[in-house]
Specification:
The chain is α+β, with helices and mostly antiparallel strands. The chain has one domain: RRM (RNA recognition motif) domain (Alpha-Beta Plaits, 2-Layer Sandwich). The strands form 2 sheets. It has a 4-stranded antiparallel beta sheet. Strands 4-5 form a two-stranded antiparallel sheet. The radius of gyration is 15 Å and the shape is globular.
C-alpha cells in the first residue's frame, strides 16, 4: 500500500459524490467522496482535514465491484473507484457548492 506524502494529499480526493443518498446523509454531517482506490482511511482523513480545515470524526470506505459494459461485441469495464463516507464533528461543515 502506498503511503501518500503530504504534498500528494489533495490528489487523494477525486470528487464529491452528489446523489440522493448523499444529500440525505448531509443531515447527519456525513459527506461522500470518490477517492483514490489505494488510499487508506488515515490518508483520506488527513486529506479532508487539510483541504477543508475541518475535524474528521470517522471515515468509512467501500470498494464497489467493477461494472462491465458492452459496446457492440466488445466487453469492457468501467473505471474502478473507492467511495469514502466522512463524518465530521458537530459544528463543522463543507461547502460543496459555493455561491458565485
Amino acid at each position: 500500500m502506498p503511503k501518500f506524502s503530504e504534498r500528494d494529499l489533495p490528489d487523494i480526493i477525486r470528487r464529491p459524490l452528489v446523489t440522493e443518498k448523499a444529500t440525505i446523509a448531509l443531515e447527519d454531517n456525513k459527506y461522500l467522496f470518490e477517492v483514490h482506490p489505494k488510499a487508506s482511511k488515515l490518508d483520506i482523513k488527513a486529506a479532508i482535514e487539510s483541504l477543508f480545515d475541518v475535524t474528521v470524526v470517522k471515515v468509512n470506505t467501500q470498494n464497489p465491484p467493477h461494472k462491465t459494459r458492452r459496446m457492440g461485441r466488445f466487453i469492457g469495464r468501467k473505471p474502478h473507484y473507492k467511495k469514502a463516507t466522512v463524518t465530521l464533528s458537530s459544528g463543522d461543515s463543507i461547502t460543496l457548492f459555493p455561491e458565485v
